[in-house]
Amino acid sequence: MENLYDLIIIGSGPAGLSAALYGARAKLKTLIIEKGKTGGQIVITHEVANYPGSIQDASGPKLVARMVEQCKEFGAEMVRDNVVSTDLDSNIKVVKGEKGEYRGKTVIVATGANPRKLDVPGEKEFTGKGVSYCATCDGDFFTDLEVFVIGGGDSAVEEAMFLTKFARKVTIVHRRDAFRCAKSVEEKARQNPKIEFLLDTVIEELKGDGVLESIVFKNKKTGEISEYVADEDDGILGAFVFVGLVPQTELFKGKIDMDSAGYIITDADMKTNIDGVFAAGDCRVKSLRQVVTATNDGAIAAVIAEKYITEFFKEEQ
Does this model's pTM top 0.85? Predict the structure, then answer.
């Protein structure tokens, strides 16, 4: 069959690139389809110091560039296209983009999950310059500084406690008067002398000159507007946003099994409910969403995909 791929990977974040590397090295005809910027969320990360072996030139863009170079070295192809529909139930999977149609024996969904945004003035401008969505990634940059954590769920409160390892003061900002996290998590946070709480409060605006220097708050009950300005000696504030993630899986709803939040359900081998279809990275149900776990997922998915091809299409070998 003309232009039939062994492996089609949708998404070029660390999971997709890792899958492409392992697939191409195994001599699978491999295609990566990416609609936006190669690398996913990692390309907006200034430093990836917690990825094993990433010491010199440890920025997100440089790490992605090395991954892409490896994939191409082993023969993986990449196209820039926006996938609009898929037919995954047949033996040969069909992925339709705005620019073309692609057919493959297996498909790995590596579309990722994006942090839910506050959608307030200044958020976009100061992302990576005071505004962050990953405490593990960026906490160290705010050593001895003041940070605000926005959110009231388990992840927000747990990340706030993590940030106390670095920041001299952490204020949790929550739009309600009670937290949604487990009581045990809240109690532990309240016992931490570095943590303060700002309830019934939302962010109205993030302000600064080059970096985040002040945050405008609004009390939801009283309507009072207040502005917190960074200490003059600090010159910068940290704002860590944990109001949820949005898995980029809308395209596969009704086709691939997902949980109530829209994350794809897989087994330990990254298999979905559809034979020959796998999921890897932040778009699947998992406990930790980091570069190191994404690359792990991608490697496993590609290796198991190769085994699936060898067995299912053995008559063609």
Answer: no
